Recover the amino acids of this structure.
């Protein structure tokens, strides 16, 4: 029988080889790939997210857990694609125009992937029109904008304006975050949500999409 609990524990403890091995074993035994994702990986990342929020885990522990999750996902992703398991939603994430900071953005991306979201990572220095393209061409349901510089925060507003100009604003939820960003700023520029950290980004995205 597939060891979902062992898999979740391997994720929490950041044991990448163990997580990969249990995943491969579970697949070989014929376990449901969706169960491997939700009962193993998502369950583990959920604990990681809560520990991070409660200051029991810090950035290095989260990065190590995310690496374990990625090593398991390498085996699981192709099988999930074959079996047509639907992601919670598709998220296009990027650090906004002019900004090269990506550590926080990567954490948010990993936590979202760990919670069952499909991630389109647009990278850093992402121009408003690239976010627009991600909605038009890749059908992103949510856009996550990260900014670490006060000077690049206006690019968040420009991205929302670009979505409005392309008549896409109603089609997509926009979430923003990053050290200088606040909930007030999110409201001011017409974003749908703000998250102060990676674990909260998962909770907020679920609430916005009504899948909490
Ligand atoms: Co930069 N830098 N940096 N830097 N850098 C800061 C941000 C700064 C505060 C340092 C300082 O002066 N004290 C300052 C910004 C000042 C300001 O505008 N308020 C600054 C500056 C000025 C600069 C340069 C301009 C320096 C220069 O060249 N003169 C330059 C700008 C380059 C550019 O972007 N165009 C620059 C460059 C760099 C490095 C390249 C050297 C490097 C980035 C490497 C990289 O990211 N790959 C770097 C770093 C590492 C930092 C600090 C030290 C750390 C940032 C970080 O990774 N934090 C930072 C000072 C500091 O914070 N102590 C600093 C850890 C990360 C996990 O946190 O990104 O906040 P954070 O993400 C959190 C949350 O904010 C949230 O979740 C994450 C996890 O909980 N979150 C989201 C983030 N994005 C989200 C998106 C969401 C939701 C939540 O979407 C929904």
């Amino acid at each position: 029988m597939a060891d979902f609990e062992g898999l979740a524990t391997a994720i929490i403890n950041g044991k990448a080889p163990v997580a990969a091995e249990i995943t491969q074993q579970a697949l070989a035994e014929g376990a449901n790939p969706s169960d491997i994702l939700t009962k193993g990986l998502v369950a583990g990342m959920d604990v990681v997210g809560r520990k991070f929020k409660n200051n029991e885990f810090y950035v290095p522990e989260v990065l190590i857990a995310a690496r374990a999750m990625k090593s398991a996902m390498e085996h699981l992703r192709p099988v999930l694609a074959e079996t047509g398991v639907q992601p919670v939603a598709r998220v296009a994430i990027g650090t906004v125009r002019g900004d090269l900071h990506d550590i926080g953005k990567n954490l948010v991306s990993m936590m979202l992937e760990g919670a069952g979201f499909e991630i389109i990572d647009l990278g850093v220095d992402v121009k408003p029109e690239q976010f627009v393209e991600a909605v038009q061409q890749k059908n992103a349901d949510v856009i996550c904008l990260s900014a670490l510089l006060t000077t690049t925060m206006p690019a968040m507003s420009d991205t929302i304006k670009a979505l409005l100009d392309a008549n896409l604003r109603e089609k997509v939820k926009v979430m923003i975050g990053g050290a200088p960003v606040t909930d007030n700023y999110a409201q001011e520029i017409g974003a749908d949500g703000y998250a102060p950290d990676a674990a909260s980004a998962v909770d907020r995205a679920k609430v916005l999409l009504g899948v909490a």
